[in-house]
Amino acid sequence: MTAAAKVPLPPSLDVALLGHYEGLDDAQVRGFLAGHPRVAALLVAAIPEVERVFGPQARVALATEAERSGAITLYATILDDPSLNTEEQVARLRRFDASWWLAQDRSAGPVAFTVGDA
Description:
alpha/beta, four-stranded mixed beta sheet, 42% helix, 4 helices, disordered N terminus
């Protein structure tokens, strides 16, 4: 059993996230999601919005990072079409932000959506 498997998530969230997010086998990511259940629910809610802006093939890589203050932030990097240039990828991220992400409740926990090459 891996360290990641020891950090349980509610089965419904685990199943919903598995088809769209990478990095769920990372113990720190699972620990973060277990400690911030509203972030996990927010990630599930983001799936149709990510697909609407980035396409149905879109995947999102999850990783945690310790900030200088010691706080842990979850980064959700949308893996975009590598044939697009950086400006096009950023424009898509801004469209995602404006159409959905900026209207979401930030009190769920420290999470940031970014964009990168698939």
